Amino acid sequence: MDYEIVIGLEIHTELKTNSKIFCGCSTKFGSEQNTNVCPVCLGLPGVLPVINEKVVEFAIKAGVALNCEILPFSKFDRKNYYYPDLPKNFQTSQYDLPIAVNGHLDIEVNGETKRINITRIHMEEDAGKLVHSGATISSSDSALVDYNRTGVPLLEIVSEPDIRSAEEARAYLEKVKAILEYLDVSDCKMEEGSLRCDANISLRPHGQAALGTKAEIKNLNSFRSVQRGIEYEVIRQEEILDDGGRVIQETRTWDENKGITASMRSKEQAHDYRYLPEPDLVPIVVDPARVAEIRANLPELPDARRQRLMNDYGLSEYDAGIITSSKAVADYFDQSVQNNGDAKVVANWLMGEVSKHLNSEGITILDCPVSPKQLTELLALIEKGTISNKIAKTVFEEMWTSRKDAEVIVKEKGLVQISDSSEIVAIVESVIAANPQSVADFKAGKDKAIGFLVGQIMKQTKGRANPDMVNTLLRERL
Amino acid sequence: MKITCKDVANVALLSRLEFSESELETFTGQMDAILEYADVLNKLNVDNVQPTAHVLPLKNVMRADEAKPSLSRELALSNAPEQEDGYFKVPKIMEG
């Protein structure tokens, strides 16, 4: 049977603050285990947590940017559960009065715009990290716990079940990530866990209003696993339903290596979070004037920036969309253009050579060894005719590894383009003389034969001959 | 409201407490009496009363985002029943 796929995403993002949400411990990633902990985040008796004002500011920023209503009165609650990543046996979170509600985000999938509604955004503390003794959680006899991450501020962004495919889920997640990056409230590094995603997935026959039974998929730690995990889970549920079975409401974990989702059986019986108002934290009352001020000072967001790139530089919607989907890439683009780079050429290089090299090394543009200034200097050499486009790629390769400037490399390696016609004429004539068969083929109407001759000339000049001149001079002599 | 032994057993499980049969009965009776005592509040008309989020008339108590020194790891781990390599060590989490 053909089912409608229904997906809701819960996105957790760690906020980029210096200190934790309720105490002064550092949030630095990668510190030695259990060195960023104190009585508050370890949940020792008698301590008093106090909210970090930056967390509230970042939450309001995110709420406004995601078109939410900021609640004028918000509070914290305790969410009780036993899992050793929480030393207090409860997570301080927000239950019935979160900071932001009723938002939405428009995404584009296959050229169509679709609105994904956002139920709520709430503030909470992150949990610690477990290192399991065995190969898997289930086969481990014990676990080691690092509480450095406990108390790192998180926003949880909960969508309505408005998503209908793995592609939409991915597009939505990418856009939320881009917005959070633009707001500069989170690093959004999925590989470091500062952006994480759980997906609630269910199926229902087309036309049925009631939702099917859902499974919650955890451990979707990259865009790829979001897409693959959802695709797998949809097939799993389809097979169960087609066989006349019932989907069990449960939490499942995505296994990236095996490419499957597996049930997580906790020792805890049915979840009973027993939320209760957090007596140690007082309510947060947000002045509407404060919200208006934050709204007025929001930075340029991805949609606006994409529009600007299209309007100001004539980039296509597609190109502008790719460049602005990451703030860092868009910043690199803007800096290059400010360095007098031609916008369209810069865009082509960014989406071509630059991203090719970044992808093959698995790094982001923030770690790009070629700076925007260096890139534009390279492009200027092409513009001036000093080097050809083809040679420029070789130079770029060299810049990537040696980090030298383009001009230095061109001089050191003698890559300056030969634009002296007498020099090229001599080579053209020698190649013609040495390849009578190709010349005859060309004259007999085999237009392709000229390609071979051009290739020979380029070989002799190590690709340095000005290609336009080679073509003209060769055709004149044939 | 009537509290049953099953309710108490459930709360005990969630709280990681273990009761004998006779304790379970004793506590069930005691909890029931406490809830019955408080039940008088359910008879009040609270239609026009806003829920209280906090007992103190305070709001927006916040701190600046400044990192402060943490505990030394040795001190942080000093109460841990078990530790290993600077980690807290805990028993098996999931059913196999």
Can you describe what's shown?
The complex is a heterodimer of chains A (478) and B (96). Chain A is of the alpha+beta class and 478 residues long. Chain A has three domains: 3-293, no CATH class; 300-405, no CATH class; 421-477, Orthogonal Bundle (Arc Repressor Mutant, subunit A), CATH 1.10.10. Chain A is built from 15 helices and 17 strands. Chain B is an alpha+beta fold. Chain B has a domain at 1-44: Glu-tRNAGln amidotransferase C subunit, N-terminal domain (Histone, subunit A, Orthogonal Bundle), CATH 1.10.20.60. Chain B has three helices and three strands. Chain B has a two-stranded antiparallel ribbon. In chain B, a hairpin with a 2-residue loop joins strand 2 (83-84) and strand 3 (87-91). At the A-B interface, strand 2, helix 1, strand 9, strand 10 and strand 17 of A face strand 1 and strand 3 of B. Strand 10 (142-146) of chain A pairs antiparallel with strand 3 of chain B, so a sheet runs across the interface.
